[in-house]
Amino acid sequence: MAPRSLTLTVAVMASCGALFCAFVPAPRPTMPVSMGAAVSTAALMTPAVAHADEGAVWIPALSAVGAGFAIGLAAIGSGVGQGIASGRCIDGISRQPEVADDLRGVLLLSLAFMESLTIYGLVIALVLLFANPLIK
């Protein structure tokens, strides 16, 4: 059991390492050594990664990651909530079958509200992908 677990752990670590090596940052322009200390301090204080000029790929890449997190977390949260609500409704119907119609109506309404939160996550993801306000 332990060698299999160790093998799987090494395989997952290697695949994660390959995934993180896929994102290569854009090359930064090098500053000549003759520049003054004030200019180099200002360059260090201003992050060059946050600007979306011609060579920057960070904002679209991080927007895609943010869109993935937005829809992923919205779907996970909604799925867990819907599963818990449906399970509790089935428990309630099995204990009191005479209130099945009332419970079913409330369940369907609450499931619709939970699904609307997933749709909000989808809208945020689509805005980040196709109408990103951070890109000029």
Structural class label: mainly alpha
| Percentage of residues in strands | under 5%
Contiguous helical run count: 4
How would you characterize the largest beta sheet? none
Indicate the radius of gyration in whole angstroms.
25 Å
Oligomer: single chain
Distance between the termini: 54 Å
How many strands appear in the DSSP assignment? 0
- Helix and strand pattern: HHHH
Question: What value does the average pLDDT take?
Answer: 78
Note poorly predicted spans. Answer: none
Portion in helices: over 70%
What sort of overall outline do the alpha carbons produce when their principal axes are compared? flat
What would you say about this model in short?
By secondary structure, this protein is mostly helical.
Describe this structure in words.
- Helix 3 runs antiparallel to helix 4.
- The longest helix has 38 residues.
- The relative contact order is 0.11.
- This protein is an all-alpha fold and 136 residues long.
- It is flat, with a radius of gyration of 25 Å.
Tell me the layout of helices and strands.
Layout: H1 2-22, H2 37-45, H3 58-95, H4 100-130
Helix pairs in contact: 3-4
Structure keywords:
136 residues; mainly alpha
